[in-house]
């Protein structure tokens, strides 16, 4: 407990468990799938979908129990994300991003946590972590200004997490921080007109010279060392896991989900497809069977490696051991390659699905576009992540603060 600060009683005790949430998400999948075309047309996940996910408890999975959360196993959270994304890529992407933020809010000073959840434990937070903002030191905190892109799901949030570089009076960069900003202090600029993940509403955020108290910020250097002031009041092992590992998994998981959805759609299509050139059912083509086997293996391998790495990280935390840099780098290696395996699987299936898969409105072409859009996220930069892993294998020193 932090000296001089009382820990609040839970504002709402959890009435669900993770399995109940997983079952509830499964029940929602047909409706989410039916709304996929509408989601893309609206350029934002329908409020009804977000509300239904809220009602089944999805957004509480990683939230502290002190505020009505479940403090669930991250594997349960990512399983739900994967399944949602299999029905609608944009809904899965937004669910993943908005759903992981309670984990980071739990690392903030308790004052910030109370501001976010004290009156409404259902409060949601969006983000844009690239250090596009500029912050200057001032008494008690910082002055923040900037414009940030790609804040997915921001229409459904009343706070935002923003990355910014902190400058000294001499103009030198002295820190890289995450700033927690309330809705009345930022503007959302509608710029999201894209070819993939069109329904994520990943619009720009603008902040103009806003004061941010220090307690509403986190140093990324400290976060990279698995530290945060919120651990004084949120003491569970969940909040001792590694930030960059969880957040990059948050990006790859929906892409794997999109691949699963594409796989299911492809198999169903081939059952009824007759290949005109050969006069045979596509499902009887032995080469089609090989492609299905290859794609399914890539998808399964991507998922298995991601979840195994989370389990290994949890084991270190449970033993009270520091998560080694080698393990962190392996997570990034498997994460970027997991994205690539999912993309490869979708490409293989899409290329083998025939001309009908090209029609507007079909799930397969949407999954193909959505997955390729997710592939360009900064977390999926394969060369950088793989180079760092390979360099460590050769014995070169790697800065653990970035991983």
TrEMBL record:
The entry lists its GO molecular-function terms as: acyl-CoA dehydrogenase activity; flavin adenine dinucleotide binding; oxidoreductase activity, acting on paired donors, with incorporation or reduction of molecular oxygen, reduced flavin or flavoprotein as one donor, and incorporation of one atom of oxygen
Q: Domain (Acyl-CoA dehydrogenase C-terminal): give its ranges.
A: 250-381
What does the entry give for GO biological process? Answer: fatty acid beta-oxidation using acyl-CoA dehydrogenase
Acyl-CoA dehydrogenase/oxidase N-terminal domain boundaries? 19-117
Which Pfam family, any one, appears in the UniProt record?
Answer: Acyl-CoA_dh_2
Does the entry feature the keyword Oxidoreductase, yes or no?
Answer: yes
Q: Which domain of life is it from?
A: Bacteria
Residue ranges of region Disordered? Answer: 1-25
- Respond yes or no to whether keyword Oxidoreductase is given for this record: yes
Please provide the record's keywords in A-Z order.
Answer: Monooxygenase, Oxidoreductase
Cellular component terms per the entry's GO annotation: cytoplasm
What family is this?
Belongs to the HpaH/HsaA monooxygenase family.
PANTHER family xrefs = FLAVIN-DEPENDENT MONOOXYGENASE, OXYGENASE SUBUNIT HSAA, MEDIUM-CHAIN SPECIFIC ACYL-COA DEHYDROGENASE, MITOCHONDRIAL-RELATED
Protein name listed in UniProt: Flavin-dependent monooxygenase
């Amino acid at each position: 407990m932090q000296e001089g600060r009382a820990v609040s009683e839970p504002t709402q005790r959890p009435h669900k468990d993770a399995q109940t949430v997983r079952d509830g998400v499964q029940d929602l999948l047909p409706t989410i799938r039916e709304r996929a075309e509408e989601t893309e047309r609206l350029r934002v996940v329908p409020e009804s979908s977000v509300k239904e996910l809220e009602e089944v408890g999805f957004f509480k999975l990683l939230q502290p129990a002190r505020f009505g959360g479940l403090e669930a196993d991250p594997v349960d959270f990512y399983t739900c994300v994967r399944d949602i994304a299999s029905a609608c890529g944009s809904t899965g992407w937004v669910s993943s991003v908005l759903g992981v933020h309670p984990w980071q809010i739990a690392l903030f000073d308790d004052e910030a946590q109370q501001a976010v959840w004290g009156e409404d434990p259902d409060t949601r937070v969006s983000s844009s972590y690239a250090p596009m903002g500029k912050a200057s030191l001032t008494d008690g905190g910082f002055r923040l200004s900037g414009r940030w892109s790609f804040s997915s799901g921001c229409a459904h949030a009343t706070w935002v997490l923003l990355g910014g570089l902190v400058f000294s009076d001499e103009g030198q960069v002295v820190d890289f921080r995450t700033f927690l900003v309330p809705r009345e202090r930022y503007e959302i600029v509608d710029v999201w007109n894209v070819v993939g993940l069109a329904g994520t509403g990943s619009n720009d955020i603008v902040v103009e010279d806003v004061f941010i108290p220090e307690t509403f910020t986190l140093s990324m250097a400290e976060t990279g060392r698995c530290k945060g002031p919120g651990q004084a009041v949120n003491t569970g092992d969940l909040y001792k896991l590694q930030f960059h590992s969880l957040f990059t998994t948050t990006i790859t998981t929906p892409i794997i989900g999109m691949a699963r959805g594409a796989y299911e759609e492809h198999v169903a299509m081939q059952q009824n497809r007759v290949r005109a050139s050969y006069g045979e059912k596509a499902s009887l083509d032995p080469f089609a069977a090989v492609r299905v086997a290859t794609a399914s293996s890539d998808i399964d391998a991507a998922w298995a490696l991601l979840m195994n790495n989370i389990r290994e990280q949890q084991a270190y935390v449970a033993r009270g051991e520091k998560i080694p840099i080698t393990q962190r780098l392996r997570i990034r290696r498997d994460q970027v390659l997991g994205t690539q395996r999912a993309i490869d699987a979708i490409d293989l299936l899409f290329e083998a699905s025939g001309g009908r898969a090209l029609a507007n409105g079909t799930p397969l072409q949407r999954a193909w576009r959505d997955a390729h859009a997710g592939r360009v996220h900064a977390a999926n930069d394969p060369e950088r992540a793989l180079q760092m892993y390979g360099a460590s294998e050769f014995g070169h020193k790697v800065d653990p603060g970035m991983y």
